[in-house]
Write a structure and sequence with these properties.
Helix content: 40-55%
CATH superfamily: HUPs
Radius of gyration: 16 Å
CATH architecture: 3-Layer(aba) Sandwich
Strand order of the largest sheet: 3-2-1-4-5
Order of helices and strands: EHEHEHEHHE
Number of strands: 5
């Protein structure tokens, strides 16, 4: 095995932060480049106009600034300076964007958390990690945070 390009999707959750050192360790071992990716999910528009009006460009601008700053912080605090890191921000459904990014960039490995911020949506839509595992063009290493309880159905 030779991993030259490792994708690390992050939703900024504790689980995603826990998975990052596994990718860093592999990147050191193989001399690989880390591709740190955050996917901004579409903003749900309220159908109840009593909520008032919103300036979606302003919200997207603020969110974009937050995402960039958070990615920069992760790189500065959690990734050694001797590793090469590429940061990317995409917009869309997380699982689809992760898979497309991995294909287009011919990545060798995806390292991601088994659980993220989605919580309740898992019951409705299924896990991002599950979809990535099933459809990814390369191996996927999933990391479960020790505080995430394993539950039998």
């Amino acid at each position: 095995m030779n991993f030259e390009k490792i994708l690390v999707p992050t939703d900024f959750s504790e689980s995603a932060r826990y998975a990052l050192p596994f990718a860093v360790d592999l990147a050191k071992k193989y001399g690989a480049k880390i591709h740190l990716l955050h996917v901004v999910e579409p903003i749900a528009v309220p159908v109840d106009f009593a909520w008032g009006t919103y300036s979606y460009p302003d919200i997207e601008k603020q969110l974009s600034g937050y995402v960039e700053n958070t990615l920069d912080t992760i790189v500065k605090e959690d990734i050694p300076k001797d590793l090469t890191v590429q940061q990317s921000i995409l917009h869309g459904k997380s699982w689809r964007e992760i898979i497309t990014f991995a294909k287009e960039n011919e990545l060798d490995l995806i390292v991601m958390a088994t659980h993220g911020l989605s919580g309740f949506s898992h019951a409705l839509y299924g896990s991002t990690a599950e979809k990535v595992i099933r459809k990814a063009p390369c191996p996927v290493l999933t990391i479960r945070h020790p505080e995430v309880k394993f539950e039998m159905p």
